[in-house]
Amino acid sequence: MKMVAPRGALSEICPSGLRSGAGPVPLGGLIRSLPGPLQRNLAHHSPAARAHSPGRRRHDVSREGSTPQLAIVADQYDFVIGVDTHAASHTLALITAGTGAVGQQAQFPTSPSGLRRAVDWIERHTHQSPTPIVIDSAGSYGATFTEQLSATGLTVAEAPDVAATTRRRRGKSDAVDAVAMAQAARSLDINELCWPRAGGDRTALRVLTVAREQMSGERTRAVNALTALLRTVDPGIDARRALTTTTIATVAAWRTRSDNATLAVCRAEAIRLARRIRALDAELAANHTALHEAVTAQAPQLLALPGVGAVVAATVLLAWSHPGRVRSEAAFAALAGASPLPASSGNTTHYRLNRGGDRRLNRALYTVALVRMGHDPRTRDYVTRRTRERRTKREIMHSLKRYISRQLFRTLNGTHPATSTT
C-alpha cells in the first residue's frame, strides 16, 4: 500500500501541485519530482532537508503561563543546564538539549559576586537563548540562586529525580550530579517541569510553618518524656491515661523537695518538662495568630471554606505557590497524593491509595475531610450516601480528599466560589 501525503504537507512541498487542483499524491512521486540534490536530502533527512522545512518552534516558558501539549524540552531548547547546589558552592553543567552531549562545566561560590559570575557564565555559554535551568534544592541551598535567576528573566525549574540505576552507573560527584539533572530534564515534557515556589510574601508563611512543625514536634517529645517519667516514678500523679492540660499545669506549679535525693531529681525534671510544654503552648498560639494574619493578607478566600483554618490554609497556599505553578486540578491532586491510582484486575475495578506527592498537603486535605465529616451537613450526607453504596470509609476518604483538592485549586485560581463541594 502506498503512503499518501496529507494535503497540508502538499502545500509545503509542492505549492504548484496544490494550485493545479491535484488530489493526494504518493510520497514517492513527490520526492522523485524534486531536483536531484534536494531529493537526496529529503530522502535521508539531512540538515539540508530540515532547512527546507519549517523551523523548530521556540517557546518562552514562564512560570505563570501555559505551555503547549507534548512539547519535549529537547525539541524546544538548544541547551539545558543542571545545577548541583551546596552551602559553599554551586556546580553548573551545560548539555546540548537535542543530543545530550555534555558541554561546559563550572563551579562558583555562593557569595553574591560568585552568583553574579554564574549568571554571566550562563548567558555567555547559552548565547542568551532561552534555556531551562534545573536546580537541585531550589527551596533551600539553591533558594538565593533561584531568586536571582528568576529576577534576571531566566527559566528556572526544580531538578527532576535521577534514577538510582543512573547514579550507580555514573558514580558520584558535583559535576556528575549536575549533568545527570540536565539529562533527566531534557527528556521531559515541558508541562512536567516543576517550577520553584514563589518567594516574597510566601517566605513568611514558609518560616512560620516550619517553625510550627518544629515546636509541635518538640512539644510531642516533651509530653512523651513527662508521661514516661511520671509512670516510672511515683510522684503522686495518676499518669495511667494521657496527660491533660490541667495535669501539666499542676506539675509545672510543683516545688522541688530535698528530703529524698532521687525524688528531688525526678520532680525537678518533671517540673522542667511541664513548664517547657506550657511555654511551647504559648509559642504555638502566637504562631497560629501570625499564620492567620499572613493567610488573611494573602488568600482570605481560603479561610471561608469549611474546615480550613490558618494552618491548613498556609500549607495549601505554600504548595500551590502562585498561578501557573500547578497546571491543572488533576496535577494539584497528584501533588497532594490525592489522585487515586488504578489497581484493577479482571472483573474487579479498584483504585488504591497514592502514597506520593506532598505529604504535608495530603495531611492538610485529611484534616479538612475529618472536620467536614463531623460538622459539614453536605459532607455528612455524602458520607451517608456512599456508605449505603457499600463504600468503605477509606474509599470515601479518598473521594473526599480528591473533591477538596479540586475545590482548593479552583478557589486559589479564582474560578470557584468559597462553598463546600461535597
UniProtKB/TrEMBL annotation:
Biological-process GO terms, alphabetical: DNA transposition
Cross-referenced InterPro entries: Transp_IS110-like_N, Transpos_IS110, Transposase_20
GO molecular function term, any single one: DNA binding
Source organism superkingdom: Bacteria
Annotated stretches, region: Disordered: 36-67
Domain Transposase IS110-like N-terminal: 81-233
Span of domain Transposase IS116/IS110/IS902 C-terminal: 301-383
Entry's transmembrane regions: none
Protein name: Transposase IS116/IS110/IS902 family protein
